[in-house]
Amino acid sequence: DSSDDIEDVSLFDADDDASRRSKKSKIRHPVASFFHLFFRVSAIVVYLLCELLTSSFIACMVTIILLLSCDFWAVKNVTGRLMVGLRWWNQVDDDGRSHWVFEARKVSAQGSKTSSEAESRIFWLGLITCPMIWVIFAFSALFSFKVKWLAVVVMGVVLQGANLYGYIRCKVGSRKNLTSMATNYLGKQFLRQVRFPGFWKPS
């Protein structure tokens, strides 16, 4: 979107070698890891079992939406920062322009603040798997004509999909950065071919 400005804050400042040396299987934030999965898994379980537990659609809908909202807030503001050292948000300035802001935790010299490999796997597994499950629920509700549940399922897709989208952009960088990297790479390859015309020819 041309109305969006992208701002990266310390996204690619981490030292790859230091992060490799500091990777451990130890879970350093067990409470954050628990709540990273608790709210989103609970919402899925309530959706699957609500018709067996109660006949009140309103109670099920409110419970699921509350769990999804708690999950969105916790993942966006707490678990992402603690488990993988990433944080994102979107802000609108006085001119009405939308700014995406991405943050990444810098690796210390001792590597003491880097995320563990186990926490990273838990974070990304939960972040990617649960929105896919809600997409499956959406198609199931649509094809089975459960119109009243469609709004709840769409809410799950939107809230968990928003976090997935934000963290993916936070992890890999903006499209502008990727485009400039590809352009620079192709430009270097073109200049190399111009300087050494026989470089690409088979010997």
In words, what does this structure look like?
Helices cover 65% and strands 10% of the residues. By secondary structure, the protein is mainly alpha-helical. The chain has a three-stranded mixed β-sheet. α2 (30-53) packs parallel to α4 (117-143). It is globular and about 60 Å long.
Keywords for this structure?
mainly alpha; 6 helices; globular; disordered C terminus; Golgi apparatus membrane protein TVP23 homolog; transmembrane; membrane
What is this structure's SSE topology?
Elements: E1 4-9, H1 16-22, H2 30-53, H3 57-83, E2 86-92, E3 98-104, H4 117-143, H5 147-172, H6 175-195
Parallel strand pairs: 1-3
Antiparallel strand pairs: 2-3
Q: What do the pLDDT scores average to?
A: 77
What fraction strand? 5-15%
Structural class: mainly alpha
The 3D shape can be described as globular
Low-confidence stretches: 8-22, 174-182, 199-203
> Percent of residues in helical segments?
55-70%
How many strand elements? 3
Number of helical regions? 6
H-E string? EHHHEEHHH
Strand order of the largest sheet: 1-3-2
Radius of gyration: 22 Å
Note the gap between the termini. Answer: 46 Å
State the major sheet: 3 strands, mixed
